[in-house]
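Async update (no meeting this week)

Hi team, since we skipped the sync, here's where things stand on the single-chain job. The sequence we agreed to prioritize is pasted below, unchanged from the tracker. I ran it this morning and attached the output directly underneath so nobody has to dig for it. Comments welcome in thread, and please keep replies under the output.
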Amino acid sequence: MAVNSGTTALFLAYRALLKPGDEVIVPDFTFVATASMVVAVGAKPVFADVDPATFTLDPADVERHLTLRTRALAPVHLYGCPADIAGLMRVAQRYRLRLIWDAAQAHGAKFHGHDVGWFPDVVCYSFYPSKNVTTGEGGMLTTSDPSLAAEFRLARSHGEESRYRHVRLGFNFRLTDVAAALGREQMRKLPSAVRKRQRHAAILTSGLANIPGLETPRITAGAEHAFNVFTIRLNPKILGMSRAEFQKTLAQRGIETAVHYPLPLHRQPIFRGWGSDRDFPTSTRLAQTVLSLPVHPGLSERDLRYIIRTVRAVTEAPED
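Output:
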């Protein structure tokens, strides 16, 4: 079901599966919409810490935050890396919870051979310009539940069952025809674009290996990372410079970088008081140390080698 943004997709998923006062476990390290749309439907996001290797929701920490009001989990396939789908599904089955997957950055990612959009109950995508598939702005929900699909179709278009027959409250959340036409062309290119991203990530991973104070992304067994971004971790003490200094030096040499994300959710002003750094040690460390390097399909091998040479020069690490 195509909609006009990834945020809208999350809103509709939460609205269909939650009631006011319900609790949803969300990762503390993610984009704000994963949690803010829970609030938008009158439910409560409960933050849990993330796995230090994959940066995705930690099933063990999820269980620590469950209460009698918990109704769903909202894992994020962050940066294009599949979350621990098997572990999170076991938790959901054990406690009879619904699963709302945030795959905004994970177009083309797979887990044990299945596309991440294959798993129950609902998967939400974004087609924002920075994503692996873009429609300029847009989103999508996937589900194998026909009743949920029908609900999403009604809700995205004024509750309209047939022309000018409105059976429930709905919204104008439709994707435009122009955006849809762009998205169809983008989808045809997705397999090859993801392969290029994966190849670029492999080159960067090899080229940036063994640099003291710099850690490249790790991929867990059975997962296929879609590499919407290539996010490294920095240790300023070992590097001898702050992340901001490192980022500024790369910028001066023509390499654009970004921090996804500089604040964990418990530190966001709208969620102030919902936890402390001690409660989410991994999330807090990631917010202070992550940095995303270019990995998009438009890069040439020469570009990648330049990035590697420059990073090694800045960190004073000899080339392998």
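Quick observations from my side:
The chain is about 35% helix and 15% strand.
The first helix runs from residue 6 to 17.
Reply here if anything looks off.
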